[in-house]
C-alpha cells in the first residue's frame, strides 16, 4: 500500500513539473510572438517566462487548493445564504433587498433577476 502512495506522489510531481514547463513554453511563445511587435518590448527567455508565470500566479491566482474555503468554490456560503433566505419572512426579505439596493445602487438593477429568491425551485 505504501508503494502505491509513493508512485502516486512521484507521478503527481512529474505532472506538476511537466505542466510548469509546458505553460512556461506557452507564455514564452506568446510573449515573443506578440509583445515585441505590438509594444516594442524585448523577447524573453524560458526562465523569464517561468518567472512571469509564477509571478502572475501569485498576484492574480493565488495558491488556493482546498485550504480555508474547503475547495468547493463558495458552495458552503451559497448553501448558508439560501437557508437564511428561506428562513426569512417576506417583510425581512423586502428589508434585505432594500438594504442591498441602497448599497449597490445601479448594479442591483442589472443583477435583479439573479437574486437568491429566483434560485429557489419550489415556489411558495
- Quickly give the structural class: mainly alpha
- Main β-sheet description: none
Per DSSP E runs of 2 or more residues, the count of β-strands stands at 0
Percentage of residues in strands = under 5%
Q: What ranges have pLDDT less than 50 throughout 5 or more consecutive residues?
A: 116-124
What's the N-to-C terminus distance? 53 Å
Helix content: over 70%
SSE succession: HHHHH
Radius of gyration: 24 Å
How would you characterize the overall build of this protein?
This protein has 124 residues and is mostly helical. It is 70% helix and 0% strand. The protein has helices at 2-39, 46-61, 75-87, 90-104, 106-110. Helix 1 (2-39) packs across helix 2 (46-61). It starts with a helix and ends in a 14-residue tail after the last helix.
Based on the model shown, name its key terms.
single chain, mainly alpha
In a few lines, what is going on in this structure?
This protein is mostly helical and 124 residues long. Helix content is 70%, strand content 0%.
What is the topology?
Blueprint: H1 2-39, H2 46-61, H3 75-87, H4 90-104, H5 106-110
